Write the structure tokens for this entry.
Amino acid sequence: MKTTLVADNATYTTTEITVKGNKYSVMVVTGKYNYINISKLTNNPFLMGGKTFQTWDEAASNYKSPEMKTELLKIELGIS
């Protein structure tokens, strides 16, 4: 599922992915701000934030799973 929001001179695009049974939210922000935020989706209300990266290379190098790297590459290339 992909959603896009434009606010504060920036475009926020959120994509939900599933890797090895775990759901993640990948938010890509471009425009006034530029970063990538990846957070695991859980029912725990106290688990917030996720990890923020400045580049796609930083994001991909933070994960060991080839499946996660593949999903991130799909989002980067716009084929997800």
User: Anything to note?
Assistant: The chain has two helices and five strands.
